[in-house]
Amino acid sequence: MADSDNVVDFTVKKGERIPRKPLGEYSEVDSLREAIARDGFLGTAMDDKNQYGPVSMMILLLIVATITGLVLKLLSR
Prior knowledge:
Layout: H1 32-39, H2 41-47, H3 53-75
Helix pairs in contact: 1-2, 2-3
């Protein structure tokens, strides 16, 4: 593999200081269930592959917070 294969092309628009990375893969679906079936839960939440990315990210946050709270509760005894 050449070194140029690992280079990410960032573009800077006029008046901006921070370069933007190219947009990822995105396509709309009809429901959250269809989004998870097609792109997977982590693909929807972490990679924003459809319009349900923010919703699934909140669900993921709720799951992680619940697990963290349970672990802290069990360790505090």
